[in-house]
Amino acid sequence: MRIGIDTYCLYTARTGVRAYVEGLLPALARVAPQHAFVQFRPRRGPRKDDAALSKALNHLTMAGWTEITLPLRAQRAHCDVLLSLEYASPRFAPCPRVVVFYDALFWSDPTHYNRWWRLLQDRLYLPAARRAGRVITISEHARTAIARHTGISPDKIVSIAPAGKRRANTSAADAAADAAVLARYGLRGRAYVLHMGVLEKRKNLPFLVEAIARCQRERDEPLYLVLAGQPGPKDDMDDSAAIRAAIARHDLGERVMLPGYVPDEDVPALYRCSRAYAFPSLQEGFGIPILEAFEHGTPVLAARASALPEIAGDAALYFDPHDAADLARALGRVLDDAALRDDLVARGRARGQAFTWERTARGVLDVLESVIPATRSKGHASDC
Predict the structure, then answer these.
(1) How is domain 175-352 classified at the architecture level of CATH?
(2) Which of 78, 290, 309, 339 has minimal Cβ neighbours within 10 Å of its Cβ?
(3) What's the CA gap between 286 and 351, in Å, rounded?
């Protein structure tokens, strides 16, 4: 079987989507070496500047790629099926199509997205998804939301959970190496709570700042908050200004640290050495940082919202994402109760074992095979 894969999103994807693509593609090759995986991507990515004309040209270029160039290349490569990895798939193609939707936020919360991007979604990519053989998503929560907001039949949507991001430094903790990482971020000897992810509005991070301030008022030991991640990718999604305003309002000064992008090699130490991982997001299709915290032995506090309870199960301490006092109390419990911390860590390690990229890849292959005729071509992996 020859499986075409549209990897245009690797030019633009960050955090969750990139982790999904970089985890899935090698896993597909590992679990199904008998198939040919043909990756399609333009030679050049979108323009990097923020000028309105450049943004408009980027949208037009992507539409041209999706609707014209991609189907032609799939035809020349004799693909049996075409997998599109981020919402956009062609309306017409020479083979059956499967498209990945990570959530329904374009339609459930459209004000956070550029109007031109929303127009393309509504006029091109959503109709294409309705015509596709299947839509893959990453949780049952996302599956339900996509069906509700897009009109895609629930029978056509398949939920397949991803896994955590693979990183080089995932072995047992090395105290000296961890100490060196903490020193680089000004965290050596400091008790801190960690959040990892893009600083988007849906992440609810000003709320987390307020909860830290409330928790600190009940404690003698200084408590720090590390919000590791880049600003939101677009002005209407970025929450950096509100986060800084919350820091000033609660007089936390240098207690809240904004290191920006953290290289992969530093991430495990930041998880391992944190007192807790706090995930207050209001909207998540999945929540890969939960699995990363499980892997590195970090107790997880998660919002009782969206997909987070589905992913964390009984391995997290939950709170109301609209009640900062509730989160402050939960933080206090985790910080002060060693037995609770140990229990959460043990539960997290056990639950995390169920999420592997091999399992994800097999689920995706089952979906791809289900939409194509019985007669299939077979070959070896290649790039186009």
Answers:
(1) 3-Layer(aba) Sandwich (3.40)
(2) 339
(3) 15
Instruction: Say whether 26 sits in a helix, a strand or coil.
Output: helix
Provide the token pair at 104: 């329904």
CA-nearest of 214, 237, 330, 326 to 277 is 330
Handedness of CA 357, 358, 361, 362 (dihedral sign): negative
- Please, what's the largest Cα pairwise distance for the chain? 69
CATH class, 2-163+356-383 region: alpha beta
- 369 beta partners: none
Name the percent of the chain lying above pLDDT 70. 94
Q: Do domains 2-163+356-383 and 175-352 have the same CATH topology?
A: yes
- For 319-345, the pLDDT digits (tens) are 999 999 999 999 999 999 999 999 999
* Cβ proximity of 6 and 337 under 8 Å: no
Place of tokens 């992008």: 261
Is pLDDT above 80 for 239? Answer: yes
Would you call 122 exposed, middle or buried from its count of C-beta atoms within 10 A (0-12, 13-18, 19+)? middle
Give the strand order in the sheet containing 316-319.
256-260, 223-228, 191-196, 276-279, 300-303, 316-319
pTM over 0.85: yes
Residue ranges covered by each domain of the chain: 2-163+356-383, 175-352
**Coil vs helix vs strand at 256:** strand
- Asked whether the beta carbons of 21 and 9 are under 8 A apart, the reply is yes
Q: Across-strand partners of 224?
A: 192
User: d(Cα 345, Cα 99) in Å, to the nearest integer?
Assistant: 35
